[in-house]
From TrEMBL:
Belongs to the EamA transporter family. GO terms for cellular component: plasma membrane. Signal peptide: none annotated. It comes from Luteimonas salinisoli. Keywords: Cell membrane, Membrane, Transmembrane, Transmembrane helix, Transport. It is found in: Cell membrane. This is EamA family transporter RarD. Its main location: membrane. It is a multi-pass membrane protein. Residues 11-146 form the EamA domain.
Length: 303
C-alpha cells in the first residue's frame, strides 16, 4: 500500500509538472519571436527527435524501431498522426508569436469536448444527457464568438481539431506512447531538416550565424521542452486515474489564458468573456458528470 501511495503521489506531481510546463510554454516561444515560426517548428522537431531516439535506444536497445513498426498498419497510422501533430505545433507556435495566446487557450479548452464528439462519430460511443448539454453549450460559445466578436475562431478550432484527430489515431494505433512518439518524430525529421536547410539558404535562418548564442541555445532546449512533458505525461497516466488526469489537463489552458490576459495583455472584452463563459460552463458540466460517473463505479458492489 505504501508503494502504491508513493507511485500515485509521484504520478500526480509528474502530471502537474507536465501540464504546468505546457501552460507556460507561450513565455518560452515568445523569447523566440525573432525566429520565423516554421524555423522554430523545424528546430523543435530536430532536437526533440534526437532526444527521444537517444532515450529509446538507451531504454530499449537499437531494435526498438523495427519492433514498433512490425505491427500491422502501424506505419501509415503513425505517419498520419505525425502529420496532425506537426500541423498542431506549427499553428500553435505561429499563433503565440502572432498575439493569439487567448485563442490558443480556447482551443485546448474546447479539445476535451471535441474528443467526445469524435468518439460519437468514429467510435460509436454514446453520450449522456449532461454530455450532450456540454457539447451544445460549447457550440453556443463558439457561435457567439463567431458572430459577436467579429471573427471565426479558426485558430482555436484548428488546434482543437488537429489534436483531437491526433488523439483518435493514437487511440486506434496499438503502440505505447513513447515509441509511437519516437516514430512520429522520425517521420517529421526529414521535412524538418528540409525546412532548416531552406531557411538557412533563403535568408530566414540564422542558426549558424545571425541569431546569436542565446537564441541558438533556446532552440536546442526547445526540443527538450517538447519531449519531456510528453514523457512525463506517459509516466503519469500509468499511475494516476484517468478521471483525475482529465481534470488536471485544464491546468495548461488556464495558465495560457491567464498569460494572454495579464502578461501579453491581449484584448478580452465583454463579448469574448461571454463566449468563454459558455465554454467554461460546458466544461464544468462535463467534469461534474465525469466525476459522478467515476464515483458510481467506485461505489458499485463487486459481483
Amino acid at each position: 500500500m505504501k508503494d502504491a501511495a508513493g507511485e500515485l503521489r509521484a504520478g500526480l506531481w509528474t502530471a502537474a509538472g507536465a501540464f504546468v510546463l505546457w501552460g507556460l510554454m507561450p513565455l518560452y516561444w515568445h523569447l523566440l519571436k525573432a525566429v520565423p515560426s516554421l524555423q522554430i517548428v523545424a528546430h523543435r522537431i530536430l532536437w526533440s527527435t534526437l532526444l527521444l531516439v537517444a532515450w529509446l535506444a538507451w531504454k530499449r536497445g537499437g531494435g526498438w524501431l523495427r519492433a514498433t513498426l512490425a505491427q500491422p498498419r502501424l506505419a501509415w497510422m503513425l505517419a498520419l498522426s505525425a502529420l496532425l501533430i506537426g500541423c498542431n505545433w506549427a499553428l500553435y507556435i505561429w499563433a503565440v508569436n502572432a498575439g493569439h495566446v487567448i485563442e490558443t487557450s480556447l482551443g485546448y479548452f474546447i479539445n476535451p469536448l471535441l474528443n467526445v464528439v469524435i468518439g460519437v462519430l468514429f467510435l460509436r460511443e454514446r453520450l449522456s444527457t449532461p454530455q450532450w448539454a456540454s457539447v451544445a453549450m460549447a457550440a453556443a460559445g463558439v457561435l457567439w464568438l463567431t458572430f459577436h466578436y467579429g471573427s471565426f475562431p479558426w485558430i482555436a478550432l484548428g488546434l482543437a481539431l488537429s489534436f483531437a484527430l491526433y488523439g483518435l489515431v493514437r487511440k486506434l494505433a496499438a503502440v505505447e506512447s513513447i515509441p509511437g512518439l519516437g516514430v512520429e518524430s522520425l517521420y517529421l525529421l526529414l521535412p524538418g531538416l528540409a525546412l532548416l536547410l531552406w531557411g538557412e539558404t533563403h535568408g530566414q535562418g540564422g542558426f549558424f550565424a545571425g541569431w546569436g548564442a542565446g537564441l541558438v541555445a533556446l532552440l536546442v532546449v526547445g526540443g527538450a521542452l517538447t519531449a519531456l512533458p510528453l514523457i512525463g505525461f506517459a509516466y503519469a497516466v500509468r499511475r494516476v486515474p484517468l478521471s483525475v488526469v482529465g481534470v488536471m489537463q485544464y491546468i495548461a489552458p488556464t495558465l495560457q489564458f491567464l498569460l494572454g490576459v495579464f502578461f501579453f495583455q491581449e484584448a478580452f472584452d465583454r463579448d469574448r468573456a461571454i463566449g468563454f463563459a459558455f465554454i467554461w460552463a460546458a466544461l464544468a458540466v462535463f467534469a461534474f458528470d465525469g466525476w459522478r460517473r467515476s464515483r458510481r463505479r467506485a461505489l458499485a458492489p463487486v459481483a
